[in-house]
Amino acid sequence: MDYKTIEIFLIVFALLYVVFEVVLNVIGNDEDTTNVFLNKWSRGEFLFIPFALGAICGHLFLGVYKNPFPNDIFSWISNEMLAVALLALVSILLWLLGKFSSFQRTNTIISIILLSGLAYGHFFWSMRHP
Fold it and tell me: What kind and span of H or E run contains 10?
């Protein structure tokens, strides 16, 4: 796909999401917006959601200019792909932790997971903004 097609897709997707949220809010049920679902899922078995959202934000909007690992750590995988693979691994581990543990998911715990993802996206999965 070319750049323009991807750009149009992302804009249409974002607009549809906003329209969907507005419709859900207009309907008036406090329990049916995506925010409520994401919050409930994050406090349930899907502990990876705050980590992944933090990592995406750190990746897109923050970032270090200098690569912490200028050379590939392993010869068989680039550092960029390794960062994505580690993101997937941490997400799976957080999902397993959420699924098979019963500790209380307080705002503090969710915030720590979110900030951990933000730091991961900033330092290791950075877009290397100048």
Answer: helix 3-27
